[in-house]
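Consider one such protein record:
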Amino acid sequence: MRRTRLTLAAALVASAALVGLPTMASAAPATPPPDIPVQLLGMNDFHGRISDTTGSDSQLLTDPGPDGAYGTADDVTTTVGGSASVATTVQSARAAFLAQGGTQEASLFVGAGDLISASPFDSSVFRDEPTIEVLNAMGLDVSSVGNHEFDRGTEELRRISAATDDQYSDDVEACPATLGGEPFQAGVDGCFPDSTGADFHGTDYPYLAANVIDTASGQPMLPPYEVFDVGGGKKMALIGVVTKTTPTIVSPAGITDVEFIDEAEAVNRWVPVLQAQGIEAIGVLIHEGGENEGGDSLDVNGCDQLTGPIVDINADVSPAVDLIISGHSHQAYNCMVADPDGNPRLLTQAGFYGRLISDIRLVVDGTTGDVDRLCGIYQATNVPVTRNAPDPDIAAIVGYWQEASADAGDVVEGTATADIRRAQGTDANGNPVAVRDGESSLGNLVAQAQLEALQSPTYGDPVIAFMNPGGLRTDIAAGDVTYADLFAVQPFGNTVNAITLTGADIRGILEQQFQNPGGPRASNLRLGTSEGFAYSFDVAQPYGQRVDPTTITLNGTVIDPTATYRVVANSFLIAGGDSFTAFTNGTDPTTGPVDVDTAVAYFEDNSPVAPPAADHGTPDTFATAPAPAQGLGGSTTEPEPVGTVDATSGALGVAGAGFTCPAEPGDGGGNGTPGTPGTPGTQPVANPGNGIGTGQLANTGAATGQLTALGVGLLLAGGVATVAGYRRGRGVTQR
């Protein structure tokens, strides 16, 4: 039973009976409206992993083992991932929330972008319509766009985003007659029959794009936010934004009708619009992120030290924003950081490929409609997507698409004598991971395959080919190589094109590999190159002077800066993707076949295929820096340092992160979290299975105090009064 707060007036009446103070009239306090518990279940960078993941993608470090230290031999890993298990994890977390007093309408399943594209064969071959059917079936409520949602261009994004049809610039249906001015053939270009036999109808959830501005209207290309009724007459809004670097990592040809503005600027534009509608509970879904570089970096719920672009974005986003769910960097972190006013703000990311779900719990104040970030339940837990009980309905949908893709995918196109890999690095556990800042056998192989496919007078008899590392999405294993294997390497459906470049342009392309520090991309991306091509580089030199032009050779002959060369690359690079803008200097373009078809032809003609050497670029130490390359764009000055902030785990709650609950009138100045309703001063412990560790405080901090100041005054007057202060429990009562 809820205990009534003893007001100051009532306390004075009580004291008057003891010390003879004059009485004061007191009206019974009005019952405040109930607070609304809210749950956000976040996922990011799913990349169409509808089937169970395999290999290292399926293994997640979940426990430090008996020694309590991550990074040692007794660490515990768990098999995770797969959309059917994502569905079960979401359902289980939601059931726990409902059992603790939450409501269905206040539990939201949300995305932070890159849900599609860079996908495995069983989704990508059908233009990711299988993933969208799965996400619809799982009940995804909303997502921000990610950079990969733009891989097939803005018109394709408008096509798939059915929930936004006729909003802002979305005037494209799921099965249009034309797309981008070209005829659209259902069942070939998209609009495939789904698992029920119905034609594709697009997303049931809206994609949000507050910082993607349609240049024709000056407004966002898709809705900037979505508003949800969470019960009790209260609303919560989520604003969606994507990394402003998207133009440097997608094909420029597909985004000519939009502009990407600063993420925080876009968020801050819409906060007052929402507040004018009476909405104070505001969150952000952002496809941009960072990395936990602290001592607990191996803990999926750790956050000792957060670094990366998200740190600066958090510092610039309005303090009215109550939480930030992030993505893009494929990291798992669970942070409690300070907003610009110094108040706590949750900032989370759930890794990648559906390996984790962020279970975020908060409370909307029944009176103000704002999130109570200081005195209420306000915490998050990254929950592993275990495979204990896959959802049978989702599994059936996945099975349909697996079968549909099997016929084409199972055809053996050739063999590999050994694994043909992307460039390799290691993760924090010493496990091999693909990286993009090294030359790779796979990149060189793909470049050679594309060159050979276009070596004819039709394409101008090209002599050099390049391949971007981000376009290589998996490795080729030794043994039989199927169509599905080759498709998985290059799942974007780019065409392979030829252009004419000068030798100076080719040097510019090589320089644009090494943009960290000093370049507009601020990262190093090593290109794959075809046989007979070589060069030397020194990354210690300034940007634009890291490749010695006298070492750039083709079949042993130095490239002439003034001569012209016929060059092959995929349509993404030809358009200047990944900030390789020197490609856009090309002339006489010719469009060739789809990239996967060139790989198929190469394996058919050359099997068994051995991994080529990854030695076309040679690191060196130059005695003097070469003259700067021309026409690179960007800046040769050192970039601003990336933001870093000390933080704490969002699983600890507000008090555990060092924030203090301020006093409310009449409660005596108690700090931390209030007790559960009817039990003032208690500190509830989480139930097992709700995404919070057994025995962990679900809401930490000191119990509510008494009216200390009033008590001192009464004692000075010679009276004694007992005043029972009480604060409403902000959130679901933990049982």
In short: Residues 392-409 form the longest helix (18 residues). Residues 163 and 206 are 5 Å apart (CA to CA). The chain is about 20% helix and 20% strand. The longest strand covers residues 234-242.
